[in-house]
Design a protein that fits this description.
By secondary structure, this protein is mostly beta strands. 0% of the residues lie in helices and 61% in strands. The strands form 2 sheets. Strands 2, 4, 5, 6, 9, 10 and 11 form a 7-stranded mixed beta sheet that branches. It is elongated, with a radius of gyration of 14 Å. 27% of the residues are buried.
């Protein structure tokens, strides 16, 4: 009922930049938090960056200073600006959202996007 659509992945050279977008649609009353995770081959999925509705943010140590997460609450969209990309950033990047669906019910639902591939290589 709620869908997360990711875009912006691709192939980029080391030192380059990409901007990922994730738009949520469907039955949504409020999005409490949105974030980005990534998973490289043979590795566990890890948190890259997250943001709350009120603007709190957090970053993995490996990306702090290079990546910036931002949001547009009116569009139910979160972005990840990735600069100074390194080969070790290569992974599938997943959008995650914690969603309140109903005004009458504060229950929080979790949704994941399908993922978008980011490859950093020369």
């Amino acid at each position: 009922q709620v869908q997360l659509l990711e875009s912006g992945g691709g192939l980029v050279q080391p030192g380059g930049s990409l901007r990922l977008s994730c738009a949520a649609s469907g039955s949504i009353f409020s999005i409490n938090a949105m974030g980005w995770y990534r998973q490289a081959p043979g590795k566990q999925r890890e948190l890259v960056a997250g943001t709350t509705k009120v603007g709190n943010t957090n970053y993995a140590d490996s990306v702090r200073g290079r990546f910036t997460i931002s949001r547009d609450n009116a569009k139910n969209t979160v972005y990840l600006q990735m600069n100074s990309l390194k080969p070790e950033d290569t992974a599938v990047y997943y959008c995650r959202a914690r969603v309140r669906k109903y005004e009458r019910d504060s229950y929080e639902y979790e949704y994941w996007g399908q993922g978008t591939q980011v490859t950093v290589s020369s």
